[in-house]
Write a structure and sequence with these properties.
Blueprint (H helix, E strand, L loop, with lengths): L12 H18 L12 H10 L5 H14 L3 H16 L5 H19 L7 H5 L6 H12 L8 H9 L8 H11 L5 H14 L25
Length: 224
């Protein structure tokens, strides 16, 4: 028996890194500059749209904010609008009462603490009412070009299915993705994964026949 027999290095680390790289290369080739689907006109309206999108569809939020952002596209205008009038604009969105309260409150805090500007800082963003880590990461990525990965239900599903970074919580998946996504893909990674989960790797029945990374996927429930 030769020297080193019985000692095995962790299997396939290089192969796994190559598989992950290939997945993101294909996403990039298919959509070099992916964009979020929430309609916004500035950093503030982006923040509001993301807050409103919790447990709601982007399409539903866009329908409500089309009229809202025409009258309130700054913290000062939103604070002046007030909760009651804001509720009328967003009543078609789930949890609209709590969201109206948070949006007016965060607008006031932006004026009081940040001179009416949306801060480029995760902790400062998360100190605002209704803003969690996912919302902060979306704003940092889209508005400020930070290579953050905002894990929503789509990314959580896709990351566990392929798998990329398996985890039982969004925090675990985010931490795992931060480690394994190559730096050159991090800026757009969460957009690619969200769009893939929304339109291809769907929850009930993934459209594996239309998937550009199907051959790189190890999900046992593949439909092809």
């Amino acid at each position: 028996m030769g020297e080193g027999a019985g000692k095995r290095r962790p299997p396939g680390k290089a192969a796994e890194a190559a598989r992950i790289n290939a997945i993101f290369e294909r996403f990039e080739a298919a959509e070099p500059n992916p964009r979020g689907e929430l309609v916004h006109t500035n950093v503030f309206t982006l923040l509001v749209a993301v807050v409103l999108s919790a447990q709601a569809t982007d399409a539903g939020v866009n329908k409500a904010t089309a009229a809202l952002f025409r009258v309130a596209d700054t913290p000062a205008k939103m604070a002046a609008l007030g909760e009651e009038r804001l509720r009328d604009y967003i009543k078609t969105i789930g949890l609209f009462r709590a969201k109206a309260k948070n949006v007016v409150a965060l607008s006031k805090l932006l004026i009081e603490r940040h001179g009416g500007e949306v801060p480029r800082d995760r902790a400062a963003l998360m100190a605002l009412p209704g803003v969690g880590r996912k919302t902060a990461n979306v704003v940092l990525n889209i508005a400020f070009g930070e290579p953050t990965i905002a894990v929503d239900t789509h990314i959580f599903r896709v990351s566990n299915r392929l798998p990329l970074a398996a985890g039982k919580s969004v925090e675990a998946v985010e931490a795992g993705l931060e480690k394994i996504v190559p730096d050159r893909f991090k800026l757009h990674a969460h957009h690619w994964l969200i769009l893939h989960g929304r339109y291809v790797c769907k929850a009930r029945r993934p459209l594996c026949e239309a998937c550009i990374v199907s051959d790189l996927c190890r999900y046992p429930g593949k439909t092809v």
